[in-house]
Design a protein that fits this description.
Radius of gyration: 27 Å
Keywords: Cell membrane, Ion transport, Membrane, Sodium, Sodium transport, Translocase, Transmembrane, Transmembrane helix, Transport
Mean pLDDT: 87
Order of helices and strands: HHHHHHHHHHHHHHHHHHHHHH
Subcellular location: Cell membrane
Number of helices: 22
Membrane topology: Multi-pass membrane protein
Oligomer: single chain
Shape: elongated
Number of strands: 0
Protein name: Sodium ion-translocating decarboxylase subunit beta
Strand content: under 5%
Organism: Carboxylicivirga marina
Low-confidence stretches: 17-33
């Protein structure tokens, strides 16, 4: 407290000396008095300060208030309803930061070269953050359920129909093939993959695509249950699946190695995503790199999630975001997500026509084919318990869920190789 008082006193003394000196100069020049000089400088200072405030700059673009409202809504959904809080809180805060009105030219905004946000956004623009997210996902994912019942991988592939259906829809609405490909990946319900692909094919639409992808991922518990109840009759929701077999350590170690080779040979363009996903899983399952796996699935993925969320949110400045194209993207994203969910459910029912006895699968798990890990698997579990309180589907649903992650990355690589 004493230091503060001393500092305040010194600053006050210096200001007084400057004021007195200005008065003497004005008096010697025969002009206005010291009081007039002070009032003139104070008036100009206040005017300059006012022009720097967000209140003044808001007059140039009042639409920023709409986006600030969107950011607050995201934070509300995350806190009140626990919808993807680890994503929506950073993104919502980023939306607010990106839409605070300011005077350009002072290296403040995300799109101003040399600003702090612009440097952080570099990781989004160049597709650096998504592979790091995939590394963390690989280090925290247990592929045992998929290894024990590999036929369920087909459901993860079937759910990707939403991606290609949306690609056709976006093309019909007038988007270029590259833009349509970036928009279509929203159907995979995989935010990092959507960011990675849009950074390569349609950087100008990245903000809208990323926000749409993460919004629909957060709304999985709202969107999927009505579709599941509509497509799957009650009698099929009651099907009980036999427990998955135990998976050996050797199988767990071999899976990421074989998966890496197989998927990257099919789709080399997805190497940054798939390579990091399987590398992270190998760190986890090898048993000799636990410290690295722990860093990848905890500290690193948390840091990258914060940076990704803030910068993606901040990229939604009203000037860039509130456009007709953004509205089209949100509409297409909703359709693609519903088509992807329905695709997984219908294909699960189709598979049951070829399966006999206790080999039949509960078609509800087809909804987990979208790669919103692990939320869509949890929704399947919840819906299964509503039909039968003793029917636990979570472990079975994780198989198409994790295969959906792989499937969306492969689909992104295929689109990239066709459209680049």
């Amino acid at each position: 407290m004493k230091r503060f008082i001393t500092l305040f006193g010194v600053l006050s003394l210096l200001f007084s000396l400057q004021f007195i000196g200005g008065g003497f100069e004005a008096f010697a020049a025969g002009g206005a008095g010291a009081g007039d000089t002070f009032l003139e400088h104070a008036s100009k200072g206040l005017e300059t300060f006012w022009k720097f405030t967000g209140f003044y700059n808001l007059m140039d673009n009042p639409a920023n208030l709409i986006m600030i409202g969107v950011g607050l809504f995201f934070i509300f959904l995350a806190i009140k309803y626990d919808y993807e809080p680890l994503l929506l809180v950073p993104i919502g805060t980023g939306v607010i930061l990106g839409n605070i009105p300011f005077m350009e030219g002072y290296k403040i905004g995300l799109y101003e070269e040399g600003s702090v946000l612009n440097y952080l956004y570099f990781g989004v623009q160049q597709g650096i953050y998504p592979p790091l997210i995939f590394l963390g996902i690989g280090a925290m994912t247990d592929f045992s359920s998929l290894i024990s019942n590999p036929k369920l991988m087909i459901l993860g592939a079937a759910a990707q129909v939403g991606i290609f259906a949306t690609f056709l829809g976006a093309s019909a609405l007038g988007f270029t093939p590259q833009e349509a490909g970036a928009i279509g990946i929203i159907g995979g319900a995989d935010g990092p993959t959507a960011i990675f692909l849009s950074s390569k094919l349609a950087p100008s639409l990245m903000g809208a695509i990323a926000i749409a992808a993460y919004s629909y991922m957060a709304l999985v518990p709202v969107i999927q249950p009505p579709i599941m109840r509509l497509i799957i009759p009650k009698r099929e929701r009651l099907i009980k699946m036999k427990p998955p077999r135990a998976v050996s350590k050797v199988e767990k170690i071999m899976f990421p190695i074989i998966g890496l080779l197989l998927t990257t040979f099919i789709s080399p363009s997805a190497l940054p995503l798939l390579g990091m996903l399987f590398f992270g899983n190998l760190l986890k399952e090898s048993g000799v790199t636990e410290r690295l796996a722990d860093t990848a699935r905890n500290a690193m993925i948390n840091i990258v999630t914060i940076l990704l969320g803030i910068t993606v949110g901040a990229s939604t400045q009203a000037d860039y975001f509130l456009t007709t194209d953004s509205l089209k993207i949100f509409g297409l994203g909703a359709v693609s997500f519903m088509v992807a969910t329905a695709g997984g459910l219908f294909f699960a029912r189709l598979m049951n026509t070829f399966l006999k006895g206790d080999n039949k699968i509960n078609p509800l798990i087809g909804a987990a084919g979208v790669s919103a890990v692990p939320d869509s698997a949890r929704v399947v579990q919840h819906e299964g318990l509503k039909s039968d309180p003793n029917n636990h589907l979570l472990m079975h649903a994780m198989a198409p869920n994790v295969s959906g992650v792989i499937g969306s990355a492969v689909a992104a690589g295929i689109l990239l190789s066709f459209l680049m």
